[in-house]
Write a structure and sequence with these properties.
Elements (H helix, E strand, L loop, with lengths): L1 E6 L2 E4 L3 E5 L2 E2 L8 H12 L5 E7 L5 E7 L2 E2 H8 L3 E2 L7 H14 L9 E2 L10 E6 L4 E5 L11 E2 L5 E3 L2 H6 L3 E2 L5
Parallel strand pairs: 3-6, 11-14
Antiparallel strand pairs: 1-2, 2-3, 4-8, 5-6, 6-7, 9-12, 10-11, 10-13
Length: 182
């Protein structure tokens, strides 16, 4: 039984067991798409009995697996919404979920839409400094117009990346100038 939904990819099951949905990475609720992912997961599983298949432990020792309700794969439903990212893993449904994840990215749906994934700051055009977070080591870097990679840099707001109006503002938030910037 799902007692509570903690975010878009984590459930609280009976006996206070925290359980993650395999193949998925949902934005934190403070990031773009995070509340949408959590709300959808609540609507799908809260107070319902779930069947868990292909359970393993993640790198932090937390249980994770494929979650089904009445034969419906909840992991797939979440992925199809566009509010979570596909995370590579090996299960009986890996290739199917991988295809769905790639299609959503190509079609720019959910967290891959212009609301969450940006190369241009349309909301505040005067703020042009791109703050990126390298997932390998959680290193924060900023890029400004004139940096070699600026035009290719994407601000992925679902991952907590953001726009800044000044270098001082970026540095205050813990971002360092990218090595490719002069």
């Amino acid at each position: 039984m799902v007692i509570e939904v903690l975010d878009g990819d984590t459930l609280l099951l009976e006996q206070d067991v925290r359980f993650r949905l395999r193949h998925l990475d949902a934005p934190e609720t403070v990031n773009c798409g995070g509340n949408e992912a959590k709300a959808l997961l609540i609507s799908l599983v809260k107070n319902k009995r779930v069947e868990i298949r292909e359970q393993i432990l993640d790198q932090w020792g937390r249980p994770m697996g494929l979650v089904y309700i009445d034969g419906v794969l909840i992991n797939q439903k979440m992925l199809e919404s566009g509010w979570v990212r596909y995370h590579h893993d090996t299960t009986t449904v890996s290739s199917k979920l991988s295809e769905i994840g790639l299609k959503l990215k190509n079609d720019k749906i959910g967290i891959f839409s212009e609301n969450c994934r940006q190369t241009v700051n349309k909301k505040e055009p005067e703020c042009q400094i791109k703050g990126n977070i390298d997932p390998r080591g959680n290193i924060k870097r900023y890029y400004y117009p004139g940096c070699v990679q600026y035009q290719f840099t994407i601000v992925e707001k679902d991952r907590g990346e953001q726009w800044f109006c000044s270098i001082k503002e970026a540095e205050k938030e813990g971002y360092k100038k990218a090595e490719t910037c002069k």
